[in-house]
Every structure is written in C-alpha cells, then in structure tokens.
Amino acid sequence: MLKAVILIGGPQKGTRFRPLSFEVPKPLFPVAGVPMIQHHIEACAQVAGMQEILLIGFYQPDEPLTRFLEAAQQEFNLPIRYLQEFAPLGTGGGLYHFRDQILAGGPEAFFVLNADVCSDFPLSTMLDVHRHQPHPFLLLGTTANRTQSLNYGCIVENPQTHEVLHYVEKPSTFVSDIINCGIYLFSPEALKPLRDVFQRNQQDGQLEDSSGLWPGAGTIRLEQDVFSALAGQGQIYVHLTDGIWSQIKSAGSALYASRLYLSQYQLTHPERLAKHTPGGPRIRDPEVKSQSLPSLNQMWFGVFAPRSSLLLLGNVYIHPTAKVAPSAVAAASGSLPRCSY
Known about the structure:
Belongs to the transferase hexapeptide repeat family. This protein is an alpha/beta fold. The chain has eleven helices and 16 strands.
C-alpha cells in the first residue's frame, strides 16, 4: 500500500506568480492545459498500489479547489483529500501535523511532491529503488550548471552508494551540480526525525515563552532541519533523473513548464494536442527550416498572405472552449521563429 502527499502551500506564498494567482490559486493554474497539480495527481495515480492522495496546505477550501478535488476523484478513482494547516508549517510541518492521516492504513512508503515543480515524475522507478534498498528518505535529484545550482538545494552524494553525504539549501558558493527536485519517497520511519525537530523547537520556544506550547514548534523545514542535519548518517539517498524538470515559481516559468509538458504529451497524452484535420488546423514543425515559416515581423505586420486554416507550430493545446481565428498562428512556447533586424 502506498500514499502520496502533495504540498500546495498557501496564499502567503507564490508572490512571484502574481498577478496570475489573484483569480486562480497557484496549484490550480493551468499548465499545458490542465491545473498545475493535475500532472502530479496523474503521475501518482499510475503507481501500482497507490491508495490515497493527500493535499496539504493552508488555502481555504473554496469552491474551485473543492470542485477540482471532486472531479479528480471521479477521473482517477482514488480518494483525494485536502488537509488544511492551521498556519504555514513549512515543507515538513504539515507532514508531521497530519502524520496520523498519512500513516492510516499502514502504507509501506509515501511520496511527497512539491506542487510548484514540473517533472515527468519517475515515481515507479523511485519505488523500485526504494524496495531494492530501503531507507527513510529517497530524494529525486537532477543536474544543473554551477550558476543555476546556487538557486536550489545542493546534494553531495557517494557516487557508488548514492547516499547523501552533504546537503545545503541555496548555498552562497558552489557545492555540487546535483540539485534537489522537490520530489521524495519516504518510509514511515522518516516521520521520526520530524518529531525530533518538533520537540526541539518546542523546547527552544519554551525557553523564551513560559506560557506553554510555543506556536512556532510546528514549523519544520525539510531541507534545513532534516536533510542538512541527517546527511552523511546513512538515512538519506538520492536517485538521479535525466528526465524533464523545472520549478514553477513565476509566470514566466509556467510558460517554460508548459513547453516541457507539451513535448511529453506526444507520448503521454497525444489526445490533448491539436491535430491536423482536413479543412482544420495545419501543423508544421518549427525546427524544419525548409518550410519557410514567416518571421515574427511578417506575422505582426501582416506581410504574408492570409490563410484559411489555423497554423500550428510545434505541440499546441487548444482548450475545447477556445475560439481561434482561421488566420491565427498558434505556437508552443519557444516555437515561434526569432525576430530578424
């Protein structure tokens, strides 16, 4: 039996995603045509033995979120529940606060996924790695260049055993080109170190406030409080992937994530891509230069003959409710030809 937890955060986060998040909660913002966290749920639902998916955050359970969860349960035939935090508890605090719900039924392990990542989610591969050599924490990692790595959690591994020997969150100097993807597989034993952090926070807080339980005790940062502290102790391991991955921290990064997912749709969801039909859209590959695609200047200023059917460049998703002019050009992010001056 397996479970999955998706950490969706809350309205106090994601300020870089504004103004897009004013009307739609960030986890429900469409990326490649579907809500951001639907990609996570689809990946979790495909893992054999998955019994329940839990969303943890501090959004109010409003109508859009409730409607999405009801639709997702019907589509994937899985219990999908939202557990609302009483306050922002960090990347690990919600896991500890809702530990009874996570461990109910006795899962052998549970996935933990940050909502603001784009990935092909190699969850079944991670499960195989875990079952071959069980450990409390398995992190998904990928590689970045020296400059990019400074923006992420950096992992130093033993190249033979893949044990995490050292972990630093957003270091000021180069540590490693292996970065944390924000996708994990935890054993039930992984909650014990979170309990230790909670108790330590409670003790530290009571030294400053003798009135009783310190509210800040529930705030736990997986990266700094757990991974950094336990690195090199034989409890944390990393699985490297060469699949697609990116963070979705801003409106611009959502466009890049859409491009990655749209490229994956060729294999995973071809039905979502617009197709060539007689008298309908015409598809051209923007990489093939012999097709003589118009330049941006030509498209902007109309220096080309009007067409009678929509022109698609690359992998394009068109929402069923969308109305597109026959003379339009619809392109995947990054597929438009460059401007020439």
